[in-house]
Design a protein that fits this description.
The chain contains 10 helices and no strands. The protein is mainly α. The chain has one domain. The chain is globular and about 50 Å long.
């Protein structure tokens, strides 16, 4: 096995671990692939990375939903959000060629800053699972969330997992563990939509993606297990760390600081 593939496997494992807890695995995996696979077209790197990440996300979701410490999911709401997000992710991907996605970057940067400040300020944010929406209102909010963030994921993408996590906590009243599990289901839908497109156009390097997928699954399983063991406090701290990293990354890309 080449050194490049070993390094990609390591970064896929790390990305899977982070993504299983709070999202944001792409912050680690994508730059590593761009660095270690020079000359490979960006769409092919994206397609290869999607196969790796979607398998890890599925593994994390399975861990959250099974076993004696399983996280209960509000299936009607989250499932509806996932289906909507998958459809709108495809529309977002189609819109990339018609809209200037660079305009989105400063808006997302500002939103991430607000998320970080609010989470720091509200010490009890995400500590209790107390759903505040019910019935049709909850389902309608699920469709809206799926449409907006699904389109965003297909169109731009960075920070999708963290945005989902914050939305499920802030809008729906979930605790961080339930929000993380719910975000995984929505992420699976959007990733599968993107992967279907990349695979159908021959933009997946399977000899790279499959070993990375194995490593991503291992990292995701470990991350989900640790999140369930350590509880919402651990997820909250890691959420703040990942959001801070996104703020620095997007800030550098937007303003060069």
């Amino acid at each position: 096995m080449s050194v490049t593939l070993l390094l990609l496997g390591f970064f896929a494992f790390l990305a899977g671990f982070i993504d299983a807890v709070v999202g944001g695995g792409g912050l680690i995996q994508l730059p590593a692939m761009l660095l270690l696979l020079p000359g490979v077209p960006v769409p092919t790197i994206l397609g290869t990375g999607k196969l790796s990440s979607v398998t890890g996300t599925l593994a994390a979701l399975r861990r959250y939903l099974t076993g004696p410490d399983a996280v209960p999911l509000r299936w009607r709401t989250v499932g509806l959000a996932a289906l909507t997000a998958g459809a709108f992710a495809f529309l977002g991907a189609k819109a990339v060629s018609h809209l200037n996605k660079e305009l989105v970057r400063p808006l997302v940067l500002g939103l991430l800053v607000v998320m970080a400040i609010y989470t720091l300020w509200r010490k009890d944010f995400g500590s209790l699972h107390a759903p505040r929406l019910h019935g049709r209102r909850e389902m309608a909010m699920g469709v809206l969330l799926g449409a907006v963030l699904g389109f965003y994921d297909g169109f731009f993408g960075p920070g999708m997992g963290s945005l989902l996590l914050f939305a499920f906590v802030g809008l729906f009243g979930y605790d961080f563990l339930s929000a993380s599990a719910s975000a995984k289901l929505v992420n699976v839908a959007t990733n599968l939509t993107a992967l279907a497109y990349f695979a159908s156009t021959g933009q997946v390097l399977y000899h790279v993606a499959l070993p990375m997928a194995v490593c991503n699954v291992l990292g995701s399983t470990l991350g989900a297990r640790l999140a369930l063991k350590r509880g919402t406090g651990f997820v909250r701290v890691l959420f703040l760390l990942i959001v801070s990293a996104f703020i620095l990354k997007l800030g550098w890309e937007t303003f060069g600081f």
